[in-house]
Design brief:
Strand content: 5-15%
Number of helices: 6
Shape: globular
Order of helices and strands: EEHHHEHEEHEH
Structural class: alpha/beta
Length: about 210
């Protein structure tokens, strides 16, 4: 397993401060709006299961229309690609991302597919994810605005108390439904540490691995 940081130094992000020691990094440029922060600051909050609007409509209202700017995924994807190339002799089986890291990972998968590049990654794991940024428009890519999907198997881990829950659902909708797994751990914008939830997450991960056996 290889752990990589984002390419840009940054202060502790939403959901991170107080839980981990620095230094901290992010995947997008320092001046870029944070997609997760925009959602967490949204004045309109709704229960994730009330059915009042789609995740994509929620993202358009609370991210795209509230100043989401300068989110260029190119540097993040180049950074991931450089790591992948150094491991060509022993390619990775999976890619895992949390929050912006999930958006960066999803963006890299999208770019590889769009360029017709081979993908050695067999599956992806997204924790508290957010949709990747569009390479041309520099805003979020949404499932009801494109027919393209992430085709490899994915597992999505979200918490119903996460103010960015809708963002994770929007990423889930960008993935091939037949091979996408979903688990709601009931917490906030974090990776839960308690044993019961950790075991449930591990079970979902094992299921994705078995699907690719």
């Amino acid at each position: 397993m290889t752990f990589i940081t984002g390419p840009t130094s940054a202060p502790a992000a939403f959901g991170i401060a107080g839980q981990y020691e620095g230094p901290f990094y992010r995947w997008f440029d320092a001046e870029a709006s944070s997609p997760v922060q925009l959602v967490s600051n949204a004045t309109h909050k709704r229960h994730p299961s009330d059915g009042s609007t789609s995740p994509e409509d929620y993202i358009r209202t609370n991210m795209r229309h509230r100043g989401l700017t300068n989110v260029d995924p190119t540097n993040a994807c180049d950074h991931i690609e450089s790591i992948m190339q150094t491991h060509d002799a022993a390619p990775f089986d999976a890619i895992l991302g949390f929050s912006e890291g999930a958006a960066a990972a999803a963006g890299w998968l999208y770019r590889q597919a769009a360029q017709g590049s081979s993908i050695s990654i067999k599956f992806a794991l997204f924790f508290s994810g957010t949709p990747p940024a569009h390479f041309e428009r520099k805003d979020v890519l949404l499932a009801d605005e494109t027919s393209e999907r992430i085709r490899i198997p994915t597992a999505h881990f979200l918490g119903s108390q996460d103010p960015a829950y809708e963002s994770g659902l929007a990423l889930y909708n960008l993935c091939e439904k037949a091979s996408a797994r979903f688990y709601d751990h009931g917490k906030g914008h974090t990776v839960p540490w308690d044993l019961k939830i950790t075991q449930a997450i591990a079970k979902e991960i094992r299921a994705v691995i078995n699907d690719n056996a």
